[in-house]
Amino acid sequence: MNPIFRAVVQKGKVIFDRVGLFNDYLTLLEGKEVDVIVRKHKKNRSNNQNAYYWGVCIKILSEELGYTDDEVHEAMKMLFLQDNLRKIPTLRSTAALSTVEFEEYIEKIRQWAAQELSCIIPLPNEVDYSGKDEVHISPPVSEETLKELFGWAGKGSITEEKIMKLSMENFNKEPRELTEKEAGELDTIIISALNE
Predict the structure, then answer these.
(1) Alpha carbon of residue 112 to chain centroid
(2) CA distances in angstroms from 30 to 13, 27, 35, 115, listed in the order given
(3) Domains of the chain: which residue ranges?
(4) CA 178 – CA 186 distance, rounded (Å)
(5) What is the model's pTM?
(6) pLDDT per residue over 108-138, tens digit each?
(7) DSSP code per residue over 91-136
(8) Cα–Cα dist 64/55, whole Å
């Protein structure tokens, strides 16, 4: 197996993260011909994505279908990660997917579950996931909570525009699109902004 060394290209030069380790490896290849491959770095799926996948998507589907988590995982790979470009079809590994590819894979699973099973898998921001067997779905923000949030307007430097801005900056959505959990977090952020 060949090691991969991460680097950044700055002003046409390669700046290695761990240049000493890279140089040590080069000494092992002294006098030999080598192949140098440079490619854009690909981020593999994140731990949060993996936890959401197994703890929410796979868990809900295994309960809905009556299969084990591993059986559902293999079935989803067969449905959405088949590689038919070779002589024989193969299944791609979820561990090898980039963060973008993994999100696309999860989205296909959510759409399939909704269309084929009438089973709604909540989005990551709609669930509170704290362990393999604990999934708590966070409901959408209530009208009462929205009134409380906007009740801060006019206090100190807080305006409705500032509340909207804080929501967009921290959650990338307007307050009315938040979950109850996110609205609680926004409330804390607004209180912190009052003290600034």
Answers:
(1) 19
(2) 22, 5, 13, 58
(3) 1-41, 47-137, 143-194
(4) 9
(5) 0.51
(6) 999 999 999 999 998 887 776 655 555 556 6
(7) E--GGG-BHHHHHHHHHHHHHHHHHHH--PPPPGGGEEEEETTEEE
(8) 14
